[in-house]
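call fold(seq) -> tokens
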Amino acid sequence: MAKTVADMMTPNPITVGPDTVLKDAIQLMADNHVGGLPVLNADGDLVGILSQSDLMWQTTGIDMPAYIMLLDSVIYLKNPSQYSQEIHKALGQLVKDVMSDHVVTIAPDQSVREAAHLMHDKKVRRLPVVNSDRQLVGILTRGDIVREMANSYA
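ret:
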């Protein structure tokens, strides 16, 4: 019988709110050895996810976009709105400033195979698991799937 997401997910994952101070969220991730945190609003709705990738802007900073001057006009060679987003993430002080708000989720009754395909296709490392009311009930990571593969070989 194929395992479901509910069989392998971590139930009741550690979460943060959008207004959590970023340094507190980073410390929470480090203390608990997790690579990402679901972000829930005051009503308990999943509004984003904070990942290690989101935090890299804090360390790497931003590169000035390439531009050329033509007749006293600045012409950017890179989309200036993307530059604005990079600045926002690099200077952000709250979780909502740097989190990803486009979250790929999965239901607990879906198969692990479906989860693996979704992770691969969407290039995500973790899937928040939501019930039919869209409430967070767990999280499934690539590590969970690899551990299950290892257990099946043992």
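The chain has a mean pLDDT of 85.
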